[in-house]
Amino acid sequence: MPNAIDELVSVSAQTGEVTLAGARCVNCGEVVFPAIQDCPLCVEPDVMEPVPVRGHGVLRDYVLAERGPEGFAVPYLQAWIALDDGPVIYSTLAVADPRTFSAERGSPMTMILEQFGTGDDAFQGWKFAADAAADV
Amino acid sequence: MSEAYVVGTGLHPFGRYPELTVPQLARTAIWNAVRDGGVAAKDIDVAYVANCYNGYFTGQADALAPLVFGRAGLSGMPMIHVAGGGAAGSVAVHQAALAVLSGQYRMALAVGVEKVFVPGNPAASISAIATSGEQTTATQLGLTWVGDLTMSARRLMTRYGWTARDFAMIASKNRGHAAANSDAELQSAISVEEVLSARMVAPPLTRPMCSSAAVDGAAAVLIADAETAARIGSGRHPRIAAMGVVGGQYRSNRLPDDRPGMLSMDEAGRAFALAYERAGIGPEDVDLAQVHESIAPEELLAYQVMGLCPPGDEAKLLHSGATTLGGRVPVNTDGGLIARGHPIAASGVAQVVETARQLRGTAGARQVEYQGRLPRVGAIQNAGAQGGPSGGVAVSAAFLLSS
Ligand SMILES: [Zn+2]
C-alpha cells in the first residue's frame, strides 16, 4: 500500500545518501520539511520552491521509550534531530542496545532507511544512526 | 458587556468502563450537570460535544453530536462536534461560552467524552491518542506523546535544575488530592519513594508520573447568560471572567532553538497574558489552578508560564507546599490528569467542573479555603493536538473563573 512518506524520501543510487523533499521560501529563505507551497514564516502563498534537504543533522533530544504504539518493539529510542539544512524532525535511533545508548546533545547523526510495519501496512521510513557508530 | 456563568456541572466518573459506549458515558455527565444546576434541559439552546477517538475505535467518525445528545433525550438545538486532542474539551467550553457571550443563545451545554481503555491492550490506547499528532512524519515512525514530552522535560531539567524527585512530588501531591475525589481514576495516595521506584515508562519518568491514555470518562458544564443565571438556583454562579485562547505559532528554524518544547505549555504564556488582561487581574489574584499535566514536569512548567513563580523557581514553589491543598495556590485540586485521569476530550471540561465547584464551595473533602473564605479566582490551563510546520498545538487555552 502506498504511504504518504514515500513521496518525501529518495536515495542516491551512487552514494546511498538519503535526501528529503523540502521547500525553501523565495521571499524569506525559510527551509521547511515536508515540502509545502505556502510560507509559514512570511505567510505568503505559492512562494515555496522544492529543495532537497540532506538527511544529516545533530541530535537535539532523545528518550528511551519503554512503552509504544502497536507494532513497536520496546524499548526503543525516540529523538528530535536538527537537520543541517534547518528543519527539526522526529526519528527513532538505530542503535544496538537502546538501554545502554548515551550521546551528547549536538552529536552528528545520519539518516538511514528501514522497513516499518509488516504485510500490507509495511512502508519504508527513516531512522538516524550516530556518525561515529556508522564508521568514520 | 455580556457575561457567561457556569450554572451546572456533571461528571461520569473517570476510569475503565469497557461495557459502556461514548453516548452512555456522555448522558450520565449531561444529566448530572442538568440536575446539579436545577435547570430545565429543554432550555439548552445549543450543545457542543468534544470527542477525539470514537471514529478511530468504532468507525462512527461523524454524526457523533446527534447520537450523543439524541441518546441523552435532547433534540431541537444545534448539536456540534468538536475535536483537538487534549484541548478538545476546552474547545467545546470556549465555543459554548462564546455562543452565550454573543447574545444569540441563553444556555449552552458543553460535554467532553472519551473512551480509550482497551482491555488487555495498552498499546492500542497509545496508538489511538497518537492520531492527535502528525502521522506521516512522526507518529507512524513511533513518536508518542509521553516520549515527546519527556524529551523536553529532560532538556528542562538541565535548564531549571528539576529532578526526578520533583516529578515524584508532583505525582504524589496529585494522587493525594484525588484520594478525596470519588470521581477520579486513581484514588489511592502514593508516596514519593513509591513513585520513584515504580516501573520506568520513559526515563526519568516512572508510571505514576504520567497520566494514562487507557481511561474512559465524561464531563459536562452548562453555561448561561446573566439573566438566565440569575433565575437558576441561588442565582449566584461562577462567572467566566476571561478566556485567552491561542494556537501554536510558527517560529523560524534559523532562530536559536530555545523553546521549552513542552507542547501544552509552549503557548500557554501567550494565552494567560490575554486572559489576565481581559479579566483585569494578575497571577497574584489566582486562588487555585487546574493545569494540563499529562506528565508531571508539565505542572512545574505551568507554575512559570501562569506567572505563579519566576523561571527557575518552579521546584521551590512546589517544595514550599504552596500548590498542595491547604497551600497558598493549590494546583490540580481534583488530582489533575495524573490522578483524576485523562480521557482526552473530557479533561478540559473536567477542569471547569472542578474549578466551578471550588468557587461555589461544593468541592467536598477537597474544598479550598482561605481563613474561612472560599476561593475567588480559579485558573485553568489546557492544550492539545499537534502537527504542521510549527510543530505546535492546535489550541492552547487559559480560562479564568471568578466567584
Ligand atoms: Zn517566507
In short:
The complex is a heterodimer of chains A (136) and B (403). Chain A is mainly β and 136 residues long.
Task: Describe the structure in your own words.
The complex is a heterodimer of chains A (136) and B (403). With 136 residues, chain A is mostly beta strands. Chain A is globular, with a radius of gyration of 16 Å. Chain A is built from no helices and 9 strands. The model of chain A has no long low-confidence stretch (mean pLDDT 94). Chain A has one domain. Chain B is an alpha/beta fold. Chain B has 2 domains: 4-119 and 216-230, Peroxisomal Thiolase, Chain A, domain 1, CATH 3.40.47; 141-212 and 238-402, Peroxisomal Thiolase, Chain A, domain 1 (3-Layer(aba) Sandwich), CATH 3.40.47.10. Chain B has 15 helices and 11 strands. In chain B, a hairpin with a 6-residue loop joins strand 10 and strand 11 (393-402). The longest helix of chain B has 17 residues, at 344-360. Chain B is globular and about 55 Å long. Chain B starts with a strand and ends with a strand. The A-B interface holds A 3-5, 8, 29-34, 36, 40-41, 60-70, 72, 76, 78-80, 82, 86-92, 105, 116-117, 123, 125-126 and B 121-124, 126-127, 130, 135-144, 146-148, 150-152, 154-155, 199-203, 250, 252-254, 257, 261, 388-391.
How many DSSP H or I helices of chain A?
Answer: 0
- Biggest interface and residues each: A-B, 43 and 40 residues
What sequence of helices (H) and strands (E) makes up the elements of chain B? Answer: EHEHHEHEHHHHEEEHEHHEHHHHEE
Main pleated-sheet profile of chain A: 5 strands, mixed, barrel
Distance between the termini of chain B: 18 Å
Summed up, the domain count of chain B is: 2
Query: What strand order characterises the main sheet of chain A?
Result: 5-6-7-9-8
